[in-house]
Amino acid sequence: MVKQIRFIDLFCGIGGLRLGFEDACRDLKINSICVFSSEIKSAAIKVYQKNFNGDQVDGDITKIDSQQIPSFDILLAGFPCQSFSSAGNRNGLSDERGVLFYEIERILRDKKPQGFLLENVANLIKHENGKTWKIIEDKLLNLGYKVNYTVLNSKDHGLPQSRERIYIVGTLQQKVNLENFSEETSCLEDILEQGKKTLDTIFVRKLLKKYSLTELYGKAIKDKRGGDNNIHSWDLELKGQINQEQKELLNELLKARRNNKWAEIKGIKWMDGMPLTIEEITSFYKPIFFANNLQYLKDLLDDLVEKKYLSFEHPKDEVEVINKLGKLVKKRLPREDLPKGYNIVTGKLSFEINKILDPQAIAPTLVATDMERIGVIDGQGIRKLTTREGLRMFGFPESFVLDLSVKQAFDLLGNTVPIPVVKKVATRLLNCLNEAQSDFAFNCNYSLSADAESIDSFSPVCSK
């Protein structure tokens, strides 16, 4: 049996991977020692050190030589995911954040630990039609590791949040079994606090005037999409009073502007929401009240522009430009040779709250840019998600200290990992190492010195 494991924690953030790994070690009665941590965000380093006894956290891993890293058995890394995620730009390994995977490869090659546990967004598997994952897998296999991966969603493992992530593990001995994990469910009601101070703002008062508390459960508040689960700025008349005709017009325009036929007509690359001319609008919107009176329609539209529900702008097309770093990048710029049209003024970040959670359901995937604007029902009012509730959605222990501003705290939480899921995967990895050690000890007469501290201390006296 493995008695002690030395590990390193790369891109450690606030320590979610470490907590899950240490929990697994504790249950298996393995003494775990973190011998090296690396992170560049100063706020994350502050939180990490506060919760891990002031452990030293080294900075930019690209500037740290492998020889500066102590010997270790397991490498943990939740390497930066924005370049692979559906919320990011999906540039993958061509993005400097994606290239950080090669730092993991370098350290594995130079230090040759017994194994590793990596975490990233589920989209990594599909990125570039699987080419990105093939590169990563081949690199790990070429280092001599038996590699396996699984995609797990935290909502299936006791957390009230849908957060699908890929977990990649490998050992030098054998492939880790990542099938048939036990599942358990939870709902937001299990982690929400009660009796907190609620909001009393114009925005919230308008919400509560128009909707009951139960009607608000699960509602999104943004002007980018339609649907029954969406509340728009014009539903609440946040930017000024408008009539029913204008609301219907906005709802129709919201849907129609996403049709890719407009891109074909204008001769531009499709984008999710294009400005439409008054002639284009009348091709799909023909209510009886204005018949063929274009001036009446124009007056309605121009009033919506004045109140900032709509913009009047040229359509944008995708072009290649040279950025400040001298790189060729794609950018959307106005096509001034094309006529201006009317477009919805979007921007969910402009709303005080952009999502109200249903306590009987689960939260969507929480990202750093959204968490500060999530609302929950408390008593007869609405308030924002607390930092403690955010921590609970990722499975952090109640003793974990995150004493930053809400904005800073959620910025860090939006990039962390679901701890119970990490624990389950880490348990499989550790069990695999236990089995491999047992097999080697039996078949190859592994000898262990009396003062051995880690798996590295085992020396086979025959080859396998």
Description:
With 464 residues, this protein is α/β, with parallel strands linked by helices. A hairpin with a 2-residue loop joins β14 (374-378) and β15. Residues 82-98 and 440-464 have low confidence and may be disordered. The protein has helices at 16-27, 42-51, 101-111, 131-142, 202-210, 213-216, 244-256, 261-266, 278-282, 294-306, 368-371, 387-393, 406-413, 419-444; strands spanning 4-10, 31-37, 74-77, 115-121, 146-153, 164-171, 220-221, 230-231, 310-313, 316-322, 328-334, 341-344, 355-356, 374-378, 381-384. It has two domains: 4-186 and 405-457, Rossmann fold (3-Layer(aba) Sandwich); 223-346, no CATH class. The protein contains 14 helices and 15 strands. α1 crosses α14. The protein is globular, with a radius of gyration of 27 Å.
Radius of gyration (CA) equals 27 Å
Q: Count of helices? A: 14
Any idea what the shape is?
A: globular
Give the N-terminus to C-terminus distance in angstroms.
Answer: 19 Å
Name the helix and strand elements from N-terminus to C-terminus, one letter apiece: EHEHEHEHEEHHEEHHHHEEEEEHEEHHH
CATH superfamily of the largest domain: Vaccinia Virus protein VP39
Q: Under CATH, the topology of the largest domain is which?
A: Rossmann fold
Q: Uncertain segments of ≥5 residues (pLDDT<50)?
A: 82-98, 440-464
Find the structural class using helix and strand composition: alpha/beta
Strand order of the largest sheet: 2-1-3-4-6-5
Bin the strand percentage.
15-25%
- Per CATH, which architecture of the largest domain? 3-Layer(aba) Sandwich
Overall strand count:
15
